[in-house]
Design brief:
The strands form 3 sheets. A 5-stranded mixed beta sheet has the order 3-2-1-4-7. Strands 10-9-8-11-12 form a 5-stranded mixed beta sheet, sandwiched between helices. Helices cover about 35% and strands about 20% of the residues. The protein is an alpha/beta fold and about 325 residues long. The two termini are about 20 Å apart. The chain folds into 2 domains: about 130 residues, Nucleotidyltransferase, domain 5, CATH 3.30.420; about 170 residues, ATPase, nucleotide binding domain (Nucleotidyltransferase, domain 5).
């Protein structure tokens, strides 16, 4: 049985997984993300951690088919990564540079949302589908799109940046990207909390949400599931925008299913039911509509997808 490693590089933590080629996860571990402004520091920490873990299993780097890496930034088709802004490092190419730290082993890098999409298709909520869009609703909105089992990455590594689809051009508040009315401003965990504050400010009606000094998505979703009217209104508004964006995606890529992940997806079937109602309104041109599913791999989706990148999409 052959083995490979999947790595998911985050802003605070780097997660690793050692896999068999059939998708069995043998071990997972993590280390703090440290760059000190240098990509070489990132590479060395990753290499040292891989070597240390493999030694525990009486394996060497040369025993690996390869190492897949999910990275928080756009990856060009030639492997170039112009910036990992959250990590403070620039001008990387893991495919070409990281092997020098790991005995020349094959390395493939991919955007982290795309890695998560591959993982969910392979061993998670998208299993059994051939085309899928993963939407991760966390601090922002990430997206990975797969067609006929293959990732769609685009000419400049930007395919799937659905968090910045404009769903409300009349929004006066700017998104972090500088745009106005981006999907992230409504459907992310941050956006749901912000919209909850807005709904409260617009109404004098009683609500359990008023007890919180600063709302977050969990407060809103828990209250909505408990029947709070203003929380229900907040979730409805946010899912309307997400359903609209999903309709846009459907009209372009026509996936078999949407898989909803990220922290917001912990609201479960309640969230899917509200979202499905809006999505179906906006895709009335289509007779067959994509199925909505929940992601199942959680924080492990990235390492699964990075491993799948090595084993073959």
């Amino acid at each position: 049985m052959r083995h490979c490693i999947g790595i998911d590089v985050g802003g605070t933590t780097i997660k690793f997984g050692l896999f068999k080629e059939d998708g069995t996860l043998l071990a997972k571990w993590d280390i703090p993300t440290r760059t000190e402004g240098r990509k070489e520091k990132l590479y060395q920490d990753m290499a040292d951690s891989v070597r240390a873990e493999l030694a525990k299993h009486s394996m060497k780097v040369s025993d690996m088919i390869g190492i897949g890496v999910g990275i928080p930034g756009p990856v060009m088709p030639d492997g170039n990564i112009y910036a990992l802004v959250n990590l403070g490092v620039y001008d990387l190419n893991l495919d070409k540079e990281l092997p020098a730290y790991l005995d020349g082993v094959t390395v493939k890098a991919v955007n982290d949302a795309n890695a998560a999409a591959l993982g969910e298709l392979w061993q998670g909520g998208g299993k059994g589908a051939t085309s899928m869009a993963l939407l991760t609703l966390g601090t922002g909105v990430g997206c990975g799109i797969i067609e006929e089992g293959k990732l769609i990455v685009g000419s400049y590594g930007m395919a799937g940046e659905c968090g910045h689809i404009i769903v409300n051009p009349d929004e006066p508040v700017a998104c972090n990207c500088g745009g106005h009315g981006c999907l992230e401003q409504y459907a992310s965990a941050t956006g749901i909390g912000r919209m909850g504050q807005k709904v409260l400010a617009e109404s004098d009606a009683p609500s359990t949400l008023r007890r919180y000094e600063k709302l977050n998505a969990k407060n809103v979703l828990d209250a909505a599931k408990a029947g709070d009217a203003l929380a229900i209104e907040t979730v409805d508004r946010c899912m309307k925008y997400l359903g609209l964006a999903m309709a846009y995606i459907s009209h372009v890529t026509d996936p078999q299913c949407f898989v909803i992940g990220g922290g917001v997806s912990k609201a479960g079937q309640y969230l899917l039911d509200v979202l499905d109602g809006h999505y179906r309104k906006y895709v009335n041109v289509q007779k067959a509509k994509a199925e909505l599913r929940l992601a199942t791999l959680g924080n492990d989706a990235g390492i699964y997808g990075a491993a799948r990148l090595i084993l073959g999409e």
